[in-house]
Write the structure tokens for this entry.
Amino acid sequence: MPHITTPLPTWEEVYSDFVDELQGEEPRFSGEELNRLVLQVFLQCIAWTPWEGRLAEVALVQQHLSSDELLDRLARVLWNYRHLAKGPTS
């Protein structure tokens, strides 16, 4: 797998920051900024080939959603398209 250069801190840095924050220290990394950077890296570096005969186009819209609203929307998408999952055949 090729190496991807990103603006993200290493997992060791984030873990250390997490442990330090549990001990009352000021975090070095903003959770909101880390979330934004992870999404940016995903959108720029991870690609997939659409399957043949796909039924819908996918649009990514950047919005400011609460965590609960985001999870609700994801759950609705997964539920609505559950029939596309290929399970074991009997």
Notes: The mean pLDDT is 76.
